[in-house]
Design goal:
Helix content: 25-40%
Bound molecules: uridine 5'-triphosphate
Largest sheet: 5 strands, mixed, barrel
Number of strands: 13
CATH topology: Spore Coat Polysaccharide Biosynthesis Protein SpsA, Chain A
Order of helices and strands: EEEHEHHHEHHEEHEEEEHHEEHH
CATH architecture: Alpha-Beta Complex
Radius of gyration: 19 Å
Number of helices: 11
Shape: globular
Distance between the termini: 56 Å
Strand order of the largest sheet: 8-11-9-10-12
Structural class: alpha/beta
Strand content: 25-35%
């Protein structure tokens, strides 16, 4: 059984600058809540009751979001508006949120390594803080169920267009079930011509603690960063890894266009907001 999840959220978020200069990108809202709240909600939906946020010196506000604010709560209570904090407060009651700081932004692999002591000797979920999902079963739950069946590391996958393979970690492997692959290779941002498939690593993983010794032996790779994909390739030489094509829709909130699109999409799924928004959007795009 998987009890713990880690959420790397220490990156600089350069694609979201200047918005993400003082406010971490993970706190920028998708409708009524910061995107990182959706990520923690997804972990809880997979049965997790212990989450470790991997943040940085400049991202204290991410930790604060998962702390009670008694003064604010009292004020809202006095004016009968407690419902405004209901979603975050009920989440805080269901999960213990810890945090650790990545001292230097040396890459996703290095961020995951910061969780070594907290995770100990258990398999754990890893959810990237700048990606959320909608529709379908929560991906963390899909992967936790796959782990219970397969007993190996499991990586969430998404099929991407051939011209996009150079933006992702790409895996190769053999199909062993419907949407389930036994992996034989992983490569970070390959050229289109050398990509082993169009199956991209989609921001969600179940990892075994063996990943930590692999991370210790992984030198900086692409972009001078310690790449989780490189450590996973080393792990693959030691133990089997499966990939599961996720049955859900992925939203990258780490760039302005996709962040805006995700907001519009989520609004369009709420009947009241959709009714208000649709004429506004139509009007907007009619004018020159
Ligand atoms: P990205 O590659 O998107 O990097 O990280 P970034 O810094 O967040 O954003 P850009 O590219 O500069 O716009 C993928 C995930 O890995 C985490 C990020 O927070 C994000 O969830 N990460 C990355 C870390 O936690 N630490 C790092 O050193 C790098």
């Amino acid at each position: 059984m998987i009890r713990k999840a880690i959420i790397p959220a220490a990156g600089f978020g350069t694609r979201m600058l200047p918005a993400a200069k003082a406010v971490p990108k993970e706190l920028l809202p998708i409708l009524d809540r910061p995107s990182i709240q959706y990520v923690v909600e997804e972990a809880v939906a997979a049965g997790i009751d212990d989450v470790l946020l991997i943040t940085s010196r400049d991202k204290k506000a991410v930790e604060d979001h998962f702390d009670r604010s008694l003064e604010l709560e009292q004020r809202l209570k006095n004016s009968g508006k407690e419902a405004l904090l209901a979603s975050i407060n009920s989440l805080i009651e269901r999960v213990k949120v810890h945090s650790v700081r990545q001292p230097e932004q040396r890459g996703l692999g290095d961020a995951v390594y910061q969780a070594k002591r907290h995770v100990g000797d258990e398999p754990f979920l890893c959810l990237l803080g700048d990606t959320i999902f909608s529709a379908g079963k929560p991906p963390a739950l899909q992967l936790a169920e796959a782990f219970n069946r397969l007993g190996t590391c499991v990586i969430g996958l998404e099929e991407v267009a051939p011209e996009k393979v150079d933006r992702y970690g790409i895996v190769g492997g053999t199909a062993v079930g419907d949407g389930v692959f036994k992996l034989d290779t992983l490569i970070e941002k390959p050229a289109k011509e050398s990509a082993p498939s169009r199956l991209a690593i989609a921001a969600r993983y179940v990892l075994t603690p063996a990943i930590f010794s692999c991370l210790e032996q992984t030198s900086p790779g692409r972009g001078g960063e310690i790449q989780l994909t490189d450590a996973l390739r080393l792990l693959l030489s030691r133990e089997p890894i499966h990939g599961v094509v996720l049955d859900a829709r992925r939203h990258d909130i780490g760039n302005p266009l996709d962040w805006l699109k995700t907001n519009l999409l989520f609004a369009s799924r709420d009947p009241a907001l959709r009714a208000a928004l649709a004429p506004m959007v139509e009007e907007l795009f009619k004018s020159p």
